[in-house]
Design a protein that fits this description.
The complex is a heterodimer of chains A (about 100) and B (about 475).
Chain A: E1 18-23, E2 26-31, H1 36-42, E3 49-50, E4 57-58, E5 71-74, E6 77-81, E7 92-94
Parallel strand pairs in A: 1-7
Antiparallel strand pairs in A: 1-2, 3-4, 5-6, 5-7
Chain B: E1 4-10, H1 14-23, E2 30-34, E3 54-57, H2 70-75, E4 77-80, E5 86-90, E6 93-98, E7 102-107, E8 120-131, E9 135-137, E10 150-152, H3 153-163, E11 170-175, H4 179-189, E12 193-199, H5 203-209, H6 217-232, E13 237-239, E14 241-247, E15 254-259, E16 272-275, E17 278-282, E18 285-287, H7 290-294, E19 299-302, E20 307-310, E21 323-325, H8 335-352, H9 360-384, H10 388-392, E22 399-401, E23 406-407, H11 408-416, H12 422-429, H13 441-453, H14 457-460, H15 474-478
Parallel strand pairs in B: 1-2, 1-8, 2-5, 8-21, 10-17, 11-12, 11-17, 12-13
Antiparallel strand pairs in B: 3-4, 6-7, 7-8, 9-18, 14-15, 15-16, 19-20, 22-23
Chain lengths: ~100, ~475
């Protein structure tokens, strides 16, 4: 991810309390009220899984629970939709 | 949560909230179910931050009996203490509707007896059922539309509205949808950059559609104002241009376009390359009909209403008794129609239940507003519509079904073999059998079928869906 694309958080937006997620074992900052897909994007994580047949990388597409592209493992439960899940402190997220 | 309710509303968008407001105060037990973490559906999301209360629209909204703008609807929403009798459940998915309006619902962990990280299943009986499941976006697929960084226009909006996060520092916007300008303005307001807006529609097409906005003069004005403020901010705006490819290794880094002639065909030798870290694209809307279809509700096909829509009578009752539908699922026309139909469906249900609902004049005003929406619906859906030739021209290596990774070449092959109905083509290709259950590719596949075979929608056939209409973890079914 290029440097220009970090820091996507909008400065004027109201943010909840600062929390920490574990993404593939790496601690990562998020804020209460953010969905998992948004928090990951803000950290520059855009590839969420690899498509089975073609081996292509995939990331969020619809952002609203329709396309099922944003499947990640959350707290040990596989195939959770990152775009429909709110980030919570200590949440363990595994991509790919 | 109880086992039975007088009225169950599926969806808490504009239509669902308007209906719940109207139903409140009549001594009914009402359940509102939505899979989103918060109420509001597609446009009210950031205004409905999680609270213990509920929301209502300022009653003055419908007093004039004239169509209302989305902006007015959003502005008139206000938080209120939760009315007696209303229960709201979020992050719960309705998976099926069975005879006598029995609902199968996947509810999240905190509502399950005992504890279950995967959530659990509940069966709920609805005296009356109101489906207000809204719409999703539709797309014209192109090479590389599966690359990370390529997203729907709505996805980019949602990132900013719900989470306060820009889609990228620089975003390229494309497609046919009026959301293009809305998104561009939102990005600029939040201090992001818009590389360019690449609108597939020529100016002449838009001009030709303007007479449809007879009752919506304010919308034409609104559109012109949006264009003006984009011009003032020097956003590059090109019309009659289509994205033909998104390039990149692990994520999008460049986007290729072609100019279009007046009929919407690519003009050879006009390709241009833009560098981009995000591409937001969309080609209009498609009603979320999976649940009503599974429930046995009859559909109608009307391109001017967004394709297959749920058939309703004047009271908004579907072909299944005591099952009502309101909002985008009866035809795409934006927030104004969802608002009016949510209210009208609720009034119809109250009348059936023998509850007094005030003077007829009130309902008449709503019906007048509903009629005025038709012109706007035609405008919106025609504006977004992609010509059949664009589907014919999709290259063989473009993926159509993202989940099952099925290419246009495979679809062409099966159509040529004679699989020319919605049902048979799905079976022959597995297109639509993946995780999203066809929510993204089914409208595309349908348009491809019409374009390649020249059949009518009735010959091609309406889509079918079975319960569960959404994926849930197997463990949820096993939970006691
Ligand atoms: C991405 C997107 C962006 C849009 N942006 C704009 C805009 O900027 N301006 C504008 O005027 N219009 C916009 N629209 C149009 C919008 O559809 C209407 O304006 C209006 O919000 C529709 O209201 P509704 O109540 O009919 O549906 P929605 O607002 O879509 O509400 C439907 C609700 O039903 C829920 N639901 C669906 N199926 C299930 C299920 N099986 N179980 C549980 N819950 C379910 C959904 O989670 C959703 O919250 C947008 C539409 C989309 C798809
Ligand atoms: S991004 Fe489409 S389901 Fe999450």
């Amino acid at each position: 991810m290029n440097n220009a694309d970090t820091d996507l958080r909008i400065s004027s937006a109201n943010r909840g309390t600062k929390i920490t997620l574990q993404v593939d074992g790496v601690p990562c900052t998020a804020y209460e009220g953010e969905t998992v897909h948004a928090a990951l994007l803000a950290e520059g994580i855009r590839v969420l899984r690899i498509a089975g047949k073609t081996g292509e990388p995939r990331g969020i597409f619809c952002g609203m629970g329709i396309c099922y592209e944003c499947r990640v493992t959350i707290n040990g439960v596989p195939d959770q939709l990152a775009c429909m899940t709110l980030a919570t402190d200590g949440m363990q997220i595994e991509t790919r | 949560m109880k086992q039975a309710y007088d009225v169950v509303i599926v969806g808490s968008g504009v239509a669902g909230i308007a209906a719940a407001n109207t139903l409140a105060g009549h001594g009914l037990e009402i359940l509102v179910i939505d899979e989103n973490p918060q109420a509001g559906g597609q446009i009210l999301r950031q205004h409905c931050r999680v609270t213990d209360g509920f929301w209502e629209f300022d009653p003055r909204l419908e007093r004039s009996g004239r169509t209302v703008s989305t902006q007015k609807i959003v502005q008139s929403l206000r938080p209120v203490p939760r009315p007696k009798g209303i229960t709201c459940v979020h992050q719960a998915r309705v998976l099926g509707i069975f005879p006598d309006r029995q609902l199968l619902v996947h509810v999240p962990d905190p509502l399950c007896p005992g504890s279950s990280v995967s959530g659990c299943m509940m069966e709920i009986d609805a005296g009356y059922l109101l489906l207000a499941t809204g719409a999703r976006e539709r797309f014209l697929p192109f090479k590389g539309w599966t690359l990370p960084g390529v997203m729907s226009l709505g996805a980019a909006q949602i990132l900013m509205k719900s989470s306060g996060i820009l889609p990228a520092r620089h975003t390229l916007i494309a497609g046919t949808s009026p959301l293009q300008t809305v998104l561009a303005l939102e990005i600029l307001k939040n201090k992001g950059n818009v590389t360019a807006i690449l609108d597939e529609n020529h100016f002449a097409k838009k001009l030709g559609l303007l007479p449809l906005l007879k009752h919506h003069g304010f919308l034409a004005g609104e559109g012109a104002m949006q264009m003006l403020s984009l011009m003032i901010r020097k956003v590059r705006f090109r019309q009659g241009v289509r994205v033909t490819e998104a390039r990149g290794k692990n994520e999008v880094t460049a986007v290729v376009t072609a100019d279009l002639d007046r009929k919407g065909n690519k003009i050879p030798g006009t390709s241009q390359i833009y560098s981009a870290s995000a591409l937001a694209v969309g080609h209009g809307f498609s009603p979320n009909i999976e649940l009503p279809v599974q429930a046995g509700c009859a559909l109608d096909y009307d391109a001017d209403r967004g394709g297959w829509v749920v058939r309703v009578d004047h009271a908004l009752e579907t072909s299944v008794v005591k099952v009502y539908a309101a909002g985008e699922i009866t035809g795409i026309a934006g927030a104004g129609k969802s608002f009016v139909e949510g209210k009208l469906a609720a009034l119809s249900i109250l009348e059936k239940l023998g509850k007094k609902t005030g003077p007829d004049r009130y309902a008449q005003k709503l019906v007048r507003m509903q009629k005025q929406q038709r012109g706007y619906a035609s405008f919106l859906n025609q504006l977004c519509q992609v010509p059949a030739s664009a589907y014919e021209a999709i290259d063989d290596d473009v993926l159509i079904c993202r989940c099952e990774e099925i290419s246009m070449g495979e679809i062409r092959k099966q159509i040529a073999k004679g699989f020319v109905t919605t049902g048979s083509l799905k079976k022959a290709t597995r297109c639509g059998m993946g995780r999203c259950q066809g929510r993204i590719c089914q409208p595309v596949l349908f348009d491809i079928l019409l374009a390649l075979t020249g059949q009518t929608p009735d010959q091609t056939g309406s889509p079918s869906f079975r319960a569960p209409v959404k994926n849930v973890p197997m463990a949820a079914f096993l939970h006691p």
